Recover the amino acids of this structure.
């Protein structure tokens, strides 16, 4: 690429040469040597003037432009101009252009610095929040330990002595409340972890069929007890790369929800998988009360519950689905719902299929990069 | 001192409980007493470490967060001075432990990491399993 300076020298050089050349030609060809001499001298003056003008313009035009270019590249690299003290020279317009640019970089630099500080502060607040949550978690769970322990002990009548019916009833009530409290604390902490992106997952290659079977086995007794027909339908046999404990949590949340909204009569519940190109789709389908489109919009939000007024047989905090969605997202999948009022509800979630396990992939990559 | 019921394990175990929370140590120790095991309780990390060094326990229930000398420091010292003891340790904590830390515990030979509030039957089965 040609530089302005080179272009200037080329143009003005040739121009001055041509002027001087015309002067000489004129001198040789003209009869009146006196006039020829005058023209020659004049052309020499003009051409050397042109030449000096070239120097002058190159200094005052190209140098400030070069300086501006250098400042721009410096600024884009370091967010500030290093040699800020360098003198600005050159023609008026370029001089003020440079000066204004310098002023602008100073302001932008200050703003960037402020943003950096703000980010730092936000990070500190975030870590304080995490610290606070783990402190709260600790302080809430600790007193629950003796409560839960003594309730269990009192229920072991061979150890603590026989209780009469009223005492037994009382202790059972305490036990139920303590369990609810424990679940609430766990759910709040879980939702917090998901919000902070701190949910840890332990992935492994698992057969999708086994995940469904585990959920099925876990809920056979509860379904029998409630007169619910539980079915299993596994069409995908693919393996997923996922966390079986977390998936069990998701299934448990979805099935508990479904159980709470099933009809008294002919209640059916189906869990299973469907094949999908890169994912295995899991689902939990019920023929319960269903939800309107409006309600479906909100159910994944924290603490949201559809108010089914007096018919509501379920209590809870409205965290279950938010947690489910958080888990599925952390496992690289997504979750959605299909439902119609009075017709039933199906919850779906996708989990990525296992191709090559990540570790193997990493070690292959590491080997390749070493060779 | 105690009349053994038939369902209890034949051999009473020596269990050390290290936890700064007195209500928790009291509850666990009375449960273990009733289950015919021998319990030693300390509410201070430093004392706990001394007891581990000077006695033979079948099982050690260890809290992690304690003022001054905490569970991590006990684990650190044991891993340097007496790593065989680590297989007897059952961690019982109210803090959530990241997976990486659980893995590190496993590498040290600690197989049990329980969350408060623990189910006491689950605690007892861990105690008997690490004592074997
Ligand atoms: N299978 C279902 N059929 C009908 N409504 C449902 C179903 N599953 C969830 N819902 C609605 O979505 C709401 C939110 O569910 P979510 O699991 O988040 O909270 P919850 O079950 O009320 O409480 P928690 O799960 O925290 O104990 C429920 O309160 C209910 O109104
Ligand atoms: Mg729920």
């Amino acid at each position: 690429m040609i530089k302005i300076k080179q272009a200037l020298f080329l143009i003005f050089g040739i121009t001055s040469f041509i002027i001087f050349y015309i002067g000489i030609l004129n001198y040789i060809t003209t009869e009146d040597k006196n006039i020829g001499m005058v023209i020659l001298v004049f052309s020499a003056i003009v051409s050397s003037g042109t030449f000096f003008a070239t120097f002058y313009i190159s200094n005052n035009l190209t140098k400030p432009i070069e300086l501006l270019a250098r400042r721009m590249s410096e600024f884009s690299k370091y967010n500030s101009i290093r040699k800020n003290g360098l003198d600005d020279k050159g023609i008026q317009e370029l001089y003020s252009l440079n000066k204004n640019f310098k002023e602008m970089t100073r302001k932008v630099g200050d703003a960037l610095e402020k943003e950096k500080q703000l980010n730092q502060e936000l990070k500190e607040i975030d870590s304080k929040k995490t610290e606070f949550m783990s402190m709260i978690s600790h302080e809430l769970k600790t007193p629950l330990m003796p409560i839960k322990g003594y309730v269990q002990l009192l229920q072991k009548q061979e150890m603590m002595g026989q209780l009469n019916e009223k005492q037994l009833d009382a202790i059972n009530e305490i036990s139920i409340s303590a369990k609810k409290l424990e679940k609430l604390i766990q759910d709040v902490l879980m939702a917090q972890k998901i919000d902070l992106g701190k949910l840890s997952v332990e992935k492994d290659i698992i057969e999708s069929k086994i995940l469904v079977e585990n959920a099925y086995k876990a809920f056979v007794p509860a379904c029998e007890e409630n007169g619910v027909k539980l079915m299993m339908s596994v069409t995908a046999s693919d393996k997923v790369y996922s966390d079986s404990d977390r998936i069990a949590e998701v299934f448990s949340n979805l099935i508990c929800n479904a159980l709470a909204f099933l009809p008294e009569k002919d209640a059916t519940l189906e869990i299973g998988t469907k094949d999908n190109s890169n994912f295995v789709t899991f689902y939990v389908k019920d023929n319960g009360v269903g939800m309107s489109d409006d309600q479906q919009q909100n159910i994944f939000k924290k603490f949201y519950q559809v108010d089914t007024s007096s018919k509501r047989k379920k209590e809870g905090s409205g965290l279950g689905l938010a947690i489910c969605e958080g888990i599925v997202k952390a496992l690289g999948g997504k979750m959605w719902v299909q439902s119609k009022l009075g017709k039933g509800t199906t919850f779906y979630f996708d989990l990525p299929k296992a191709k090559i396990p990540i570790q193997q992939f990493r070690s292959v990559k590491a080997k390749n990069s070493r060779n | 001192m105690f009349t053994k019921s038939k369902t209890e394990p034949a051999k009473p175990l020596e269990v050390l409980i290290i936890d700064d929370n007195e209500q928790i140590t009291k509850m666990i120790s009375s449960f273990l007493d009733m289950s015919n095991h021998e319990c030693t309780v300390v509410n201070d990390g430093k004392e706990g470490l001394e007891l581990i060094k000077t006695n033979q326990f079948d099982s050690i229930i260890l809290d992690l967060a304690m003022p001054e000398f905490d569970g991590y420091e006990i684990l650190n010292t044991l891993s340097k001075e007496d790593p065989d003891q680590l297989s007897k340790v059952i961690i019982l904590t109210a803090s959530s432990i990241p997976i990486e830390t659980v893995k590190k515990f496993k590498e040290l030979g600690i197989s049990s990491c329980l969350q408060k509030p623990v189910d006491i039957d689950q605690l007892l089965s861990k105690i008997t399993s690490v004592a074997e």
Summary: Residues 4-87 of chain A form one domain. Strands of chain A lie at 204-207, 229-234, 239-242, 268-275, 279-286, 335-340, 344-352. The interface with chain B takes residues 134, 137-139, 141-150, 152-153, 158-160, 182, 189, 193, 200, 202 of chain A (CB under 8 Å).
